[in-house]
């Protein structure tokens, strides 16, 4: 997804996503996503090839040219998978030029990357350290809905317990429409009669982190305390930060750069998987009543870098990560990534680091579930633009083959559906693996909550940490992906022989898909094999 306005902090009424056929994008957007200044990621054919460059760093610097001049300095940080992060210090006169035109740095970095690859046949990829984010669909809030949300913390009272239907208030009040029957839900209510999960199944959620003291998570046996943070740079302050064995989400607001409120995105996503306490008479329910969720923080304010995400993937898959003594313990059976950027997933297109990490994770036996993406902002020249920068800068859905990691080989890519089972008006489309509930907060229904009639949007309900507001409905492919991750967790609990076999799991998932209603996916916006049906998935032989 992209470094465009990324904060989904509340419920929205006016959805700005474009749905008309003529504005659906089926060609590659132009322009580049944001990047970490002064850094390149380089992958080598072997560790020996990497060390050869490290040992000849001074000679390499003298041969390189950026803007016609040799870099003033080069430094390296070794990374897993025979890779390294190259930090480039430009000469002072180039620094002066970049202060007035910082966007020009990307051309310099890519110039150096091309030289490194052309001069060394052992360099497999060399590209900028791109920044990814959660990229929520654009929309706006209405005062009446905000007033209703202000009461959620006090309105959600405990309900009577049930053996197959969770007693969590959000479910009891009917807010969890996304767990109901198809075409709107994923058929979880009927699936829970067959399987509720096992804590032997591990799901790693790579996101903004987790709020471990949230009222619906503090005593949950389904979440591993602390987890790990791979965030090495605060993009809001432009400062280097230390990685640490603590995935606590401190919030990702950046008021100075337009992000006034924190998203609590990782908490919301992990809650849908099952990190919170399902059937505990409090708050919301997750897809898997029993599961082990490991939070892995890879996104901070204004997103996270390729480098941090790639190492987070490796760590979650139980693979060693250079410089990190901690291990995940048990390899994650499932890795959920509700994040991304714009661009194809190829080494040639500058995506080698995460592409290789995904390959390694799958080889280790982890299945990788990713959101298909929520479109992007483009101008009338099909170039990436900043929301609000001009009247020509509008939001468009795009084919998921132009989104990453959604287009990476071997991932399970998830498009979003609404309560009708239709492709959501913000969701990317194409040959995705499956479609699952992501919500549409431009649509509303009334609910009776503790005897009061309340009006809420048809988003996906999960946990947040916004003062007195502890639960909110969000929309997005970010919400669709954890439904699939939770569904796979239940399927692996029921079918242990599927564990460690990513190709088989995707085959079973696709085979269980149900065709959506007529007109749900127009011919110019295909959406894969169909809707997720959890009962059919659990019933696969």
Polypeptide structure, described:
The chain has 541 residues and is α/β, with parallel strands linked by helices. It folds into 2 domains: 14-28 and 134-538, Rossmann fold (3-Layer(aba) Sandwich); 46-121. The chain is 23% helix and 23% strand. The protein contains 14 helices and 24 strands. It has helices spanning 47-55, 57-63, 92-100, 105-119, 143-150, 152-155, 169-172, 188-191, 265-273, 306-316, 352-363, 477-494, 502-511, 534-538, and strands at 14-15, 35-44, 73-79, 83-89, 123-132, 139-140, 197-207, 228-229, 233-234, 239-240, 290-297, 304-305, 334-337, 341-342, 367-371, 376-378, 394-396, 403-404, 412-417, 434-437, 440-449, 452-458, 460-466, 469-474. The strands form 8 sheets. The chain has a 7-stranded parallel sheet, sandwiched between helices. Strands 3-4-2-5-12 form a 5-stranded antiparallel sheet. Strands 1-6 form a two-stranded antiparallel sheet. α9 (265-273) packs parallel to α12 and α10 (306-316) runs parallel beside α11. The two termini are 35 Å apart.
Shape label: globular
**Unreliable residue runs:** 1-23
Task: Quickly count the helices.
Answer: 14
CATH superfamily grouping of the largest domain: Peptidase S8/S53 domain
Q: What's the CATH topology label of the largest domain?
A: Rossmann fold
- At CATH level 2, the architecture of the largest domain is 3-Layer(aba) Sandwich
Arithmetic mean pLDDT:
90
Going by helix content, strand content and strand pairing, the class is alpha/beta
> Termini separation (Å)?
35 Å
Strand content: 15-25%
The value of Rg in angstroms is 22 Å
Please give the order of strands in the largest beta sheet: 8-11-7-13-15-19-20
Helical content, roughly? 10-25%
* Count of folded domains: 2
**The level-1 CATH class of the largest domain:** Alpha Beta
């Amino acid at each position: 997804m992209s470094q465009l306005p990324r904060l989904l902090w509340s419920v929205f009424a006016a959805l700005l996503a474009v749905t008309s056929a003529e504005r659906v994008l089926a060609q590659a957007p132009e322009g580049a996503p944001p990047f970490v200044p002064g850094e390149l990621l380089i992958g080598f054919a072997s560790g020996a090839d990497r060390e050869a460059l490290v040992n000849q760093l001074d000679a390499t610097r003298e041969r390189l040219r950026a803007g016609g001049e040799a870099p003033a300095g080069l430094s390296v940080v070794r990374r897993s998978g025979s890779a390294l992060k190259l930090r480039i210090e430009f000469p002072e006169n180039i620094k002066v030029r970049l202060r007035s035109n910082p966007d020009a740095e990307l051309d310099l970095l890519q110039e150096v990357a091309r030289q490194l690859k052309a001069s060394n046949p052992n360099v497999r990829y060399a590209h900028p350290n791109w920044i990814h984010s959660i990229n929520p669909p654009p929309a706006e809030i209405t005062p009446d809905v905000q007033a209703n949300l202000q009461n959620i913390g006090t309105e959600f009272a405990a309900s009577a317990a049930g053996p197959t239907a969770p007693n969590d208030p959000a479910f009891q009040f009917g807010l969890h429409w996304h767990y109901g029957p198809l075409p709107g839900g994923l058929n979880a209510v009927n699936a829970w009669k067959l399987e509720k999960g096992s804590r032997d199944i591990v799901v790693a959620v790579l996101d903004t982190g987790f709020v471990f003291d949230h009222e619906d998570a503090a005593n949950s046996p389904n979440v591993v305390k602390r987890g790990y943070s791979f965030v090495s740079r605060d993009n809001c302050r432009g400062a280097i930060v230390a990685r640490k064995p603590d995935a606590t989400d401190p919030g990702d607001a950046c008021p100075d750069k337009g992000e006034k409120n924190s998203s609590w995105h990782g908490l919301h996503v992990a809650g849908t998987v099952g990190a919170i306490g399902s059937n505990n008479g409090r708050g919301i329910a997750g897809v898997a009543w029993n599961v082990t969720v490991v939070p892995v923080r890879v996104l901070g304010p204004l997103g996270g870098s390729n480098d941090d995400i790639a190492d987070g993937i490796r760590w979650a898959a139980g693979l060693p990560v250079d410089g990190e003594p901690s291990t995940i313990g048990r390899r994650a059976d499932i890795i959920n990534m509700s994040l991304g950027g714009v661009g194809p997933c190829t080494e040639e297109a500058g995506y080698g680091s995460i592409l290789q990490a995904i390959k390694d994770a799958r080889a280790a036996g982890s299945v990788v579930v990713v959101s298909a993406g929520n479109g992007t902002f483009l101008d009338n020249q099909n170039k990436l633009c900043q929301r609000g920068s001009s009247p020509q800068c509008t939001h468009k859905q795009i084919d998921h083959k132009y989104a990453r990691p959604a287009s990476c080989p071997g991932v399970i890519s998830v498009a979003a559906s609404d309560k009708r089972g239709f492709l959501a008006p913000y969701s990317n489309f194409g040959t995705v693996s499956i479609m699952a509930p992501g919500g549409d907060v431009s649509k509303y229904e009334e609910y009776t909550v503790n005897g009061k009639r309340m009006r809420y949007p048809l988003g996906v309900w999960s946990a947040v940490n916004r003062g007195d507001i502890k639960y909110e409905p969000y929309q997005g492919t970010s919400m669709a992906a954890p439904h699939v991750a939770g569904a796979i967790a239940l399927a692996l609990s029921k079918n242990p022989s599927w564990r460690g076999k990513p190709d088989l799991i995707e085959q079973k998932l696709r085979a269980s898909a149900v065709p959506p209603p007529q007109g749900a996916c127009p011919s110019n916006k295909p959406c894969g094999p169909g809707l997720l049906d959890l009962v059919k998935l659990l019933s696969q032989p």
